[in-house]
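Quarterly update from the structural biology core.
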Amino acid sequence: MNAEPRDQPASWLEDRRFRAWALYEQGWKQPAIAAALGVTRGAVRQWIKRGRDGGRKALRHQPPPGAPARLTAKQRTQVPVLLAKGAPTYGFAGDRWPAKRVAVVINCQRRRPPSATRQRSRPGMLNAGQR
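Predicted structure, tokenized:
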């Protein structure tokens, strides 16, 4: 029997949920499924409930909740390179990288860089006389 590609599990965790569902459909009891797969009865109970509510599709991996990433994968790889230049390169005092400073540097790189005057007047940035 050839399964369509989308029916194939994406990971061993997903495969384990699919196997639990198949055993349940064959009439196995939840404690026996848990013992056979080496998982807790609570896990099997949750999987069976998801399977009953949404079928096999509900047992697939669900993406984590939250907002989508704002940076592309390429942009994320550039962040360590930008930070390696050091905070003073971007006009900050000291060589620390609190989250707000990282955000300023990333935002400057994502859009057209602001003028030098505007950049110096940002909070946390050194003025020309303080360098």
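The chain has two domains: 9-59, 73-130.
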